[in-house]
Amino acid sequence: MNASVTKLADWKVAHSRPVVSDYCRWSEAVETTMRANLGMAFTLWFVWPRVLLRTALGV
Predict the structure, then answer these.
(1) What domain of life is recorded for the organism (predicted)?
(2) What are the backbone angles phi and psi of residue 7, rounded to the nearest 5°?
(3) How far is residue 3's CA from residue 22's CA, in Å, rounded to a whole number?
(4) Roughly how many angstroms between the first and final C-alpha of the chain, as a whole number?
(5) Virtual CA dihedral for 43, 47, 49, 51, nearest 10 degrees?
(6) Dihedral over alpha carbons 28, 33, 39, 43 (to 10 degrees)
(7) What is the structure's pLDDT at 3?
(8) Is the pTM here over 0.90, yes or no?
(9) Which pLDDT value is given to residue 5?
(10) Taking CA 23 as the corner, what is the angle to CA 21 and CA 28, rounded to the nearest 5 degrees?
């Protein structure tokens, strides 16, 4: 009976670590995506209209 408990403890240790690793990878992916979207939003809302105005008006 002790052997099965030991195996269960080993299994639990082996399978609890990937959750943290997966969480870190997902967190990094979400952070990278949000950063890219924020950069694109900044470009579209602030930089691109200025480029168009300078091109159209020659300022």
Answers:
(1) Bacteria
(2) -65, -40
(3) 30
(4) 83
(5) -130
(6) 170
(7) 56
(8) no
(9) 64
(10) 95
CB 59 within 8 A of CB 53: yes
Q: Which residues contact 53 (CB under 8 A, 6 or more apart)?
A: 59
Q: Which tokens in the block code for residue 10?
A: 């080993």
Place of tokens 């959750």: 19
Q: Residue 59 has what pLDDT?
A: 75
Residues 6+ positions from 59 with CB-CB distance below 8 Å: 53
DSSP 8-state class, residue 8: H
The residue type at 35: R
